[in-house]
Amino acid sequence: MRARREADGLSLWLALAWVAVVVAAAVLAGALPLRSYGALVPGVDARTPPGWRPEFLGTDAIGRSVLARVVHGARESLLVGIGSAALAMAAGLATGLAAGYFRRWVDTAIGVVLDAVLAVPALVLLIAVAAVGRRGTATIVLGLAVVGTPSFARLARASTLAVVDREYVAAARALGTRPGRILRRELLPEVVLRLAPFAFVFMAFAVVAEASLSFLGLGLPPPAPSWGGMINDGRPYLDGDPFLVFVPAVCVFLTVASFTVIGERARRRFDARESRLR
Amino acid sequence: MSGRRGGTVLRLVLPQLARTAAVLLLVGFGAAFLLDLAPGDPAFALLGEQATAEQIAATHRALHLDDPFLTRYWTWMSGVVRGDFGTSYLTGEPVMASVAARLEVTGELVLLALAGALAVSVPIGVLTAHRADGRADRAWSLVSSGLIATPPFVLALFLAYVLALKVGGLPATGWAAWADGPGANLRHAALPAATLALALVPTYSRMLRADMIATLQEDHILAARSRGLPVRRILFRHALRPSSFSLVTLTGISIGQLISGAVVVEVLFALPGLGQLVVTSVTAKDVPVVQGVVMFLAVVYCAAGAVTDVLYGCLDPRVRVRPT
């Protein structure tokens, strides 16, 4: 039991460390002494095979630095993850709180709209949004926010229902507080806390979805680097130089795993606090 | 007596039906609206860039492209209700025909993946719950965390690399219809279906494990144990059924996840399925096909929900509707 707890602690630290690395890479990508992600590495021409070794981590099929592209790719993944999670959480909070507080027809109407979003498979919806909007980070973030809103909203609604009948809410209502203020001051802080762990889980999903979209050729337009796009570019060379696929794939894997671990731990910690309160 | 019973069922089913109808109407509206926003003129996609102004105008008239949005939505929706999903801008084929032709592939993949995922995760879930926190449980928790963090397309690449390129024996791309021989069909379906199934196994087995651990602490399990029943019989005959509700719900919900996965897998393995149809028609702005496929998938999702509800009743006598 003790060994297990220590292993859990270790995995949390490793996850936080990896996220810190990704954040640092994303923020500092422009300032680091890296090669340009769009230009050929000097000394390489069109006939050089991919995986030119004098360059650390090699070169890609065209002759660009894999290291520079993977570091700059972190920016895209992180931006999409954080941006879509924040948007989806805001939208989910607004709809979920309203549905849980006002109930009746508000609840039904919101439920039907959310069900309609859920009825379309996530990636199909994302592909449709990507095809409509301008190709770029903003479109992907918006698409993912739409896909994610129902999950956040359902969680927020359930959490609202769990606290809306408590005494302090009744007290606020008895004092004549307006619904808007009750929602903001009494319910929102409680519900946000319960939603926060899920935001990490959603970020893990968003990183995968963004990579899938780039993989299908619907992500950022070239030459902008993204991990999913790099995996797709490396596919034909899987046999000769698996590094081209391996490096970005490992980045996606570690990022997703880290977000999942952090979300999981946050949820468990929150559960424990909740059970002590009761 | 029987009349009143029918009334109870209707009262339970009707609001659900109304809700489903509203959801589907909204999905159709959303699909039509979204694609209406899409840049580009479908007439260009149909006629090519060198089309003359008259040709384009004629195409617009033929396809009712100049009608107001709501008129087009209404025409389309009333067709859908009668089972007519319109015709593709690109091929001129009825949408339902091309969906039906592709459904064979995607349907087989999804069903194979579901069956495979359940066949693997039920024993794993039961055994890890039986020896919770044991060595096997901890090892599986590590493996399943790894699987959860692996995007489907990376998993597919890995499987294709190892099983098709290195070991050999399985085709890396392409599809063989059932009519070409069941062996060839299954060999082509194996890798894509395995990819989809592997993505589900970790969540399925974890869900079952959690419920099973709770069930195993109940009195009727203790009673069965004290009667000296064999462990295997207790686990699979006494504990599995009351532990399977969340798994059944999850299975119904994961239809959407499976179809998302199928999109990626079909593109990767070059399979002529619904997912590929979505990707090609979205990029070509073939609005009727996209609308048709999205509508069809939404119907499948709602139907899966209904089937889940019925299964629930079969598994748990407490939720069955009884005449009162």
Plain-language structure description:
The complex is a heterodimer of chains A (278) and B (324). With 278 residues, chain A is an all-alpha fold. Helices cover 74% and strands 0% of the residues of chain A. Chain A has 9 helices and no strands. In chain A, helix 2 (66-102) runs antiparallel to helix 3, helix 4 (122-132) crosses helix 5 (137-163) and helix 7 (179-215) packs antiparallel against helix 9 (243-277). Chain B has 324 residues and is mostly helical. Chain B is built from 13 helices and no strands. Chain B has helices at residues 2-37, 42-47, 53-63, 69-81, 95-130, 135-149, 152-167, 182-216, 219-226, 231-243, 245-268, 274-284, 287-315. The radius of gyration of chain B is 24 Å and the shape is globular. The A-B interface holds A 1, 4, 108, 111-113, 115-124, 127-129, 131-132, 204, 208, 211-212, 215-216, 218, 228, 231, 235, 238-239, 242, 245, 249, 252-254, 256-257, 260-261 and B 19, 22-24, 26-27, 30-31, 34-35, 37-39, 133, 138, 145-146, 148-154, 157, 161, 165, 256-257, 259-261, 263-264, 267, 278-279, 282-283, 285, 290, 293-294, 297-298, 301-302.
Number of strands of chain A: 0
CATH topology of chain A: MetI-like fold
| pLDDT < 50 runs, ≥5 residues of chain A | 272-278
Mean pLDDT of chain B: 79
Order of helices and strands of chain B: HHHHHHHHHHHHH
| CATH homologous superfamily heading of the largest domain in chain B | MetI-like
Name of the level-1 CATH class of the largest domain in chain B: Mainly Alpha
Helix percentage of chain A = over 70%
Quick summary:
By secondary structure, chain A is an all-alpha fold. Chain A has helices at residues 2-28, 66-102, 104-119, 122-132, 137-163, 167-174, 179-215, 227-234, 243-277. In chain A, helix 1 crosses helix 9 and helix 3 packs antiparallel against helix 5 (137-163).
